[in-house]
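As a warm-up, study this chain.
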Amino acid sequence: MISRTKMLLIVVLFVIAITGIRLTWLSFQKTIDHPQAVNGILDLRGWQLPADHTIPLNGQWEFFPSRLLTPKERTIQQHSSESEKTYIEVPGDWKNAFSDGKDPSFRYGTYRLQILLDDPSHPTYKLRINEIRNASAVYVNGRLYAEAGQPATKQTLQQARNIPYSVTIPAGDETIEIVIQASNHAGKGGITQPIRFGTIDAVDNRTLLSAGLQFMLCVVLCCTAYMLFSCTFWERRTEGCSTSPSLSSVPFSAC
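Now compare it with the structure written out below.
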């Protein structure tokens, strides 16, 4: 069996490593003070987004339940004055936004947010979509920029694909209109994780750091498991035989 000293050492090293990763993650997650979306509008006029930071597009988005609307067909404008439009908190589960009697196991709808800027010659911005369940399509200023799967009005037509992805927003407009179609057939639906907004470098750096921290966590877990296995294997072997351990102990020298 593993001695108490070795077990304590492994636990201490594990806790130190996990704590370091956790503190880095908390520092990484810290968000600067910024305006919130209200009634489907995020007004950034008079506020400067630092080039090395991203902000979450949290707050009230326009939402059209049981409608997959496309800006190109101007159906958004046609439906904006109707009673079917509501406002929904993003991120969050969309289940309370549906009041119809349709099958609750399959839902679909359209989100809309307008971002107001001071200058049309703003830097090229980027969106980082973390989670939209379970299929989505993102339009920016009337143009389809990215999809994850294929949202649909029927479950048989939906192609589910829930993965993180990015959308680049070119300069040239004082208003950025973001329209997101989504459909879901299981569990929580809609935009369930924050959408990050910032310059290309800021979004890419955040994405790489997130991936790096997750990789480090996997390495720590694997190393801890290897040390526990190695120590257990070697101690059982030394208890069961009296042969010299000089050669066989090399792989387990960490213990």
